Amino acid sequence: MTKPPPPNAPLEILHDGRYIQAVRVDRWEYVRRKNTTGIVVLVAVTPDQELILVEQHRVPVGGPVIELPAGLAGDIIGSEAEPLEAAAGRELEEETGWRATRLARLTSGPVSAGLTSEVVTFFGAYDLERVSDGGGDASEDIIVHHVPLADVPTWLAAQMARGAQVDPKVFAGLYFALSM
Fold this sequence. Notes:
Layout: E1 11-16, E2 20-25, E3 28-33, E4 38-44, E5 50-58, E6 63-67, E7 70-73, H1 84-96, E8 98-110, E9 119-130, E10 143-148, H2 152-161, E11 165-166, H3 169-177
């Protein structure tokens, strides 16, 4: 078992990119995201009991990925102190075209604790109202899917059969969606 680095171990920047840094602390090398205060993930169920999912081409995995709506907090110039809840509402509307009357924090945790310092916070989105088509901002090409809760497992299997990858956070979100 690898021992953790001492609490006062210096941080060495191995690579400083526009959006990420590769760093080393003692023998641990990992990635950390720059210019953001957190990551939000939305579990949103429409009034018709459909789970809202998004699909995007993701360059690192070379193809389409089915995901829960998600995004960064504090990444917009002038809004660096944006609260996570505000980012969650903004991302839900931007990506999906739905607005939540109420957002509630469900849980948070690391994405890949051995590779990155990222921690995601899940929010439940309640009392939804459709306000636009969604699809993301000018830099995104998002397909919005509305999948009946009872059909989600079968639908996801069909997406995987056609070659799309499914972000495992979808399954965590489904757990929460079934209790909303």
